[in-house]
Amino acid sequence: MAKLKVTVWNEYRHEREDAKVAEIYPAGIHQAIGGYLGQDSTLEVRTATLDEPEHGLTDEVLAETDVLIWWGHVAHHEVKDEIVQKVRDRVLDGMGLIVLHSAHASKIFEALLGTHTGQLKWREAGEKERLWVVEPNHPIAAGLGEYIEIAHEEMYGERFEIPAPDELVFISWFEGGEVFRSGCCYRRGKGKLFYFRPGHESFPTYHHPDVIKVISNAVRWAAPVAGSKVTYGRVEPLEALKVTEHV
Amino acid sequence: MAKLKVTVWNEYRHEREDAKVAEIYPAGIHQAIGGYLGQDSTLEVRTATLDEPEHGLTDEVLAETDVLIWWGHVAHHEVKDEIVQKVRDRVLDGMGLIVLHSAHASKIFEALLGTHTGQLKWREAGEKERLWVVEPNHPIAAGLGEYIEIAHEEMYGERFEIPAPDELVFISWFEGGEVFRSGCCYRRGKGKLFYFRPGHESFPTYHHPDVIKVISNAVRWAAPVAGSKVTYGRVEPLEALKVTEHV
Amino acid sequence: MAKLKVTVWNEYRHEREDAKVAEIYPAGIHQAIGGYLGQDSTLEVRTATLDEPEHGLTDEVLAETDVLIWWGHVAHHEVKDEIVQKVRDRVLDGMGLIVLHSAHASKIFEALLGTHTGQLKWREAGEKERLWVVEPNHPIAAGLGEYIEIAHEEMYGERFEIPAPDELVFISWFEGGEVFRSGCCYRRGKGKLFYFRPGHESFPTYHHPDVIKVISNAVRWAAPVAGSKVTYGRVEPLEALKVTEHV
Amino acid sequence: MAKLKVTVWNEYRHEREDAKVAEIYPAGIHQAIGGYLGQDSTLEVRTATLDEPEHGLTDEVLAETDVLIWWGHVAHHEVKDEIVQKVRDRVLDGMGLIVLHSAHASKIFEALLGTHTGQLKWREAGEKERLWVVEPNHPIAAGLGEYIEIAHEEMYGERFEIPAPDELVFISWFEGGEVFRSGCCYRRGKGKLFYFRPGHESFPTYHHPDVIKVISNAVRWAAPVAGSKVTYGRVEPLEALKVTEHV
User: Fold this and answer.
1) pTM for this predicted structure
2) Are C31 and C47 in contact (CB under 8 A)?
């Protein structure tokens, strides 16, 4: 069976500019996530980053990507609009997209959902987050307990300006008193999107086994599926019309 | 009670360039729709068109519009991106938006939904369309029979590349053998959107009482509602944290 | 304008058997809620309780009820199945239904949703609950702040075995570490249902202004609306068939 | 890999009482469907019928069924309530359920969805049905063309009194002028349901390759998935409470 091709995209700035972050993710968040996923022999994992030519997302790379994982934070505005459009077209054409944490404010997430997805409450206090599974039979929750507990995380709180998710898998509880829709599934065009909240750069969240399990489950969930044929444009009638072309 | 402020926007090209269309809509589709809505004394109706400065959608007009109705077809690309962004922001801030017929391919509809909403099947053969009500208790269907029949219309057929509607009110049957999701409700940000399929420029569809009834119902459905308070951005914790700001 | 007819149904056992509860709700939870709603001159409010004949829900009462509010806890099994079926039929025929707190496990809620709605986590520790508004433009949230805070409540925690709500308005945060989908909208048949979590009998929750505001908003949201005509059963074709009745 | 266990349940009355039906399905609809599915070596298929003891749905059979297919028409009322409850519990516990054609009015479908699912329009005129795929990337549509055409079928028309499907895969066009939501997905409890419209007993619909393909796809879609752990009932707090158990 052909391997599933995963590309982990990362802005890759914090890790090169902040010693504290570099300590947690010496080779970058993309390499951390990619390394864990790469232990699965059914996945073929590559990475791409903002400062590579075309942000590492050439037509060839996109064409060979089944599922794209996206992490960004301080440099959303540096992502070129033409690349965003290419990624959007690929998602609508069937590529899966997993949007992590602060990439809620990325151009690609906003372009695909249409709302001001950057709008939410936040606080960097290193508090406790507990992600409760609300749909225990969802494939993205496979193998988890009833919740995921993360000792220290940035807080994101509602109201989060997103379209109501097609499927809501996780809801977060925060020590400081907020809640958040933390695992949101969307189907758009032929593609699937999953937004997963945790993963601030200054915490070792992507070394948490349950977080990796969710990302790994989401990769499989978001993978392209065989579907039916679809065409667009002008068509002839399938049934005889009583009218003729109107004059 | 304050009147509800409705702006009917129209590309207004066919009516000026095609004698056949001008015969049906001598003052333009916007004036036809606006005229019918204006008979309702609880509505305050104005119109705006593509070739006016700023497409007739100045900041003042947008600020004073509760519900915007949008018709376009051949000149979607002439609508300026900055106006599209202003309209999008107003919708996400609470203004209702009713997207008619060929405006499925408009920039504003695509920007708010995120998919290639221009993608569908079509045929101009003047065939019969029957729009079945699938949610008879939806306020947009109020006062209708079980279906709306239109003797001659352009056909739009599935697959229509839209996000699954939050509420699906109408499904069309076409004489030539196709079906279509013809009445689609979406909530985005604080705003509501309604897509309504019928209304090709070469047919007197907007003189059909049931079509006007649907548009009129949709205006009320899409009107801004009083909601709860909402703020975004950095917040202090509501509960005492065990951790202090991480170092 | 005709008044909206509201019936507040209560099991009415705790208040008669437990002095502590009677202190909070001397005339019963139904009278407390009914009293607050009755201050609104556009509502016509009556009450009904389990131990009345037919549980106070005669055909006449049901026929004259636009919105039914339901509170029950220890005596769900005493509600007669034929009354449950009548209530269900009325909801599917357009009557609104507001299901409060422990009525999640009522026969009527389970009959209308189809799942084991009694299944959830719970704890009676009098802890703090904070209900966050996740859809600030929903009419049920009108006039609220960003959240409702209740100093002491019973905890309900996920997983709650309900169908994914058509609209999710509130998510609760609990001091003990859990979350809950606390404001759930459903459309079923011609009727609308709203489940609202708070309201344990041993706390003065139904004296909380925001809780009453939500119930009041929900009454209006769930009120029957004018819809389209609908018929069922055998019908003649609307179009000529090429086949004749098969032999 | 363990085989997926499929049980095809059939009322099995028409085939034994009506020579015309017996000609099409000599061994019954269950054997026809079961025979086709049985050609897939990854499936283990058995059948069960109404007139067997316990309708062929003993605890053992249900416990060993991953996906149950259900066909019924004239004898819905003969299905014992206790069996319906057992099937419902199994679905909510994870067993898939595929409800075919006239089983829209079965006790099990109504019990799981909560509405009067028997309510729809119908006509037995052997007319043409065309099922359009509206979600071409749904696994249930895998391998199909843009639509399925059935030369002769009973007509079912909207309004169909169902909860809005979680995912709508097919919409039918009928020669006589109606439309119908013909492929409806629901998640309930840990289980998945798929309603598929075609299959009147007097037509060879279950010999149609595309119809079998859909049923086969639906079996895989509805199969139980590994999920997360879930428990219900009284729980201790996960966080220290400021209050003590209230007195």
Assistant:
1) 0.97
2) yes
